[in-house]
Amino acid sequence: MTVLSRHQYKEVIVAYKRNTLVGGYHVYRKWFIPLLLFYIRDFYIPILAILVYADDTYGAEPSRKTGIMGGYILGYGVVIALLGYMAFREFFPLQLAMMCMPVLHEQIFEVNRRVEGESDA
Description:
The protein has one domain (10-115). A hairpin with a 2-residue loop joins strand 2 (20-40) and strand 3. The chain contains two helices and three strands; from the N terminus they run E-E-E-H-H. By secondary structure, the chain is of the alpha+beta class. The relative contact order is 0.14. Helix 1 (62-88) packs antiparallel against helix 2.
């Protein structure tokens, strides 16, 4: 969804970055998604998920950056779903799959820093 709506919902921002005043864009998008209906004792319970994408960009065009980040988020979701399926089928250790989730999530932040041209130094 981030990739599909990447040209929308951006606003111009001004901020200090490394003691320099710079201009950029803030991208914010929210989606409400009904996921499942649980059936408990003749009672249906809807589950509503709220997905949010928010990011600031100073070194890249907003549509380009949200396209890149949206692709990585999609890849993350696919990998996590595959790991979950393999753990459910006992082809992959559940504990290792659970450890992969935060590690892969942090890699998305690293990609974000690289797209912005930042380094840890």
